[in-house]
């Protein structure tokens, strides 16, 4: 049984005492930022960090007009606590799958981070793209996964001494739950692995019967894997697999790809998380799950829906499976917010959102992580 530490989001100020003049509204200990610091101290989740360590704080920077990412004031506190240990701290995130959108490039990610309020000035640490300028800076790792046998781990993650995952917990139409496992399983890998997580095809192929010879795929391919007669060379494409050719051809459908089922995507996310943990070392990870602004879909999309449960709080653990299971349980125990995607009380809330449209259940990810021995599904929740 793993230990998961928890601080809730309530600021339970003593109103009767304040009304009588025996207490004040201005009590900083009720701030969730200060409760986060206490959580870190009591849980010992940062005890892995030593002076001189290069520490990657892995988080999601959002996508330009995303509005409910983790607030920068929390990330600043995380960095402050790590700086006190004498660590070299940097904030990091990987590029998205594709070649058309700015979020698919390191610099585009940095611009999105700035819009969301994540800068050196606000967070006290530099922001460094985990997988380089275009998402192809990686270390190739062999694993014995449930479906994946090779994973392209982002180079900055592979080079870090320690990794602190700061996950904004929310729903996800393919992975089920966006928590610690997804934060490292998708967010810490480069484009080729993002391709393998989401798509069944080993490589894209051009359907000559639908191709009109426009040449857009040839122009966008960063690998030079497409010949002048518009054929894809698998041996060159394999280390890129960026999705660019498919993106520029979607209207014509000459480069079709079969996207994975939600269940298989969840399994592959767990496989990728195994590779990331194997690369850095399980003993070198700490996990913080922010169960705040719990939206139906991940921060990859350029909008944020209304949260479907109230703010719960922040969790800390050294076990990614236990902290995600605890997060899911706390979400399922919470009431539904009005005017959200859910309209009636239900036990498995995220599954209810995506069961019909995506056949998705967050338990797929947790079950795969359990099979891969990424942690323990049983936990003891200790409230701070």
Description:
The chain has two domains: 2-11 and 27-190 and 262-383, LarA, N-terminal domain (Rossmann fold, 3-Layer(aba) Sandwich), CATH 3.40.50; 201-257, Alpha-Beta Plaits. It is globular. Helices cover 34% and strands 16% of the residues. The protein contains 15 helices and twelve strands. It has helices at 15-19, 32-43, 72-83, 106-116, 120-123, 155-159, 180-185, 191-198, 216-220, 234-237, 244-248, 262-280, 320-333, 349-358, 362-371; strands spanning 2-8, 54-58, 88-93, 127-129, 138-142, 150-154, 162-168, 170-172, 176-178, 285-291, 313-317, 379-383. 49% of the residues are buried. It starts with a strand and ends with a strand. It has 384 residues and is an alpha/beta fold.
Q: In short, what is this structure?
A:
Helix 13 runs antiparallel to helix 15.
């Amino acid at each position: 049984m793993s230990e998961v530490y928890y601080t809730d989001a309530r600021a339970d100020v003593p109103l009767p005492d304040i009304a009588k003049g025996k207490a004040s509204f201005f009590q900083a200990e009720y701030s969730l930022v200060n409760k986060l610091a206490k959580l870190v101290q009591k849980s010992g989740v940062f005890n892995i960090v030593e002076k001189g360590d290069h520490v990657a704080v892995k988080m999601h920077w959002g996508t330009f007009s995303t509005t409910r990412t983790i607030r920068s004031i929390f990330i600043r506190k995380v960095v402050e606590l790590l700086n006190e240990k004498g660590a070299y701290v940097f904030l990091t995130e990987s590029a998205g799958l594709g070649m058309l959108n700015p979020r698919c490039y390191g610099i585009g990610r940095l611009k999105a981070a700035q819009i969301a309020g994540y800068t050196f000035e606000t967070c006290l640490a530099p922001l460094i793209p985990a997988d380089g300028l275009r998402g192809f800076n990686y270390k190739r790792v062999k694993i014995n996964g449930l479906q994946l046998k090779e994973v392209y781990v982002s180079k900055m993650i592979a080079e870090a001494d320690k990794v602190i995952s700061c996950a904004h917990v929310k729903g996800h139409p393919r992975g089920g739950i966006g928590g610690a496992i997804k934060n490292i399983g998708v967010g810490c890998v480069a484009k080729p692995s993002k391709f393998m997580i989401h798509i069944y095809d080993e490589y894209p192929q051009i359907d000559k019967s639908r191709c009109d010879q426009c040449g857009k795929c040839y122009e966008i391919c960063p690998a030079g894997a497409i010949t002048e007669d518009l054929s894809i060379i698998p041996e060159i494409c394999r280390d890129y697999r960026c999705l660019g050719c498919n993106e520029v051809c979607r209207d014509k459908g000459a480069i079709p790809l079969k996207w994975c089922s939600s269940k298989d995507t969840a399994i592959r996310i767990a496989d990728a998380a195994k590779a990331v943990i194997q690369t850095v070392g399980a003993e070198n990870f700490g996990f913080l799950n922010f169960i705040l602004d719990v939206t139906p879909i991940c921060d990859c999309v350029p909008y944020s829906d209304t949260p479907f449960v109230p703010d719960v709080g922040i969790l800390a653990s050294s076990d990614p499976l236990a902290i995600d299971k605890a997060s899911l349980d706390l979400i399922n125990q919470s009431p539904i917010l009005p005017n959200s995607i859910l309209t009636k009380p239900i036990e498995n809330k995220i599954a209810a959102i995506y069961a019909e449209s995506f056949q998705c259940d967050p338990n797929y990810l947790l079950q795969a992580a359990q099979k891969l021995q990424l942690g323990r599904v049983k936990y003891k929740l200790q409230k701070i």
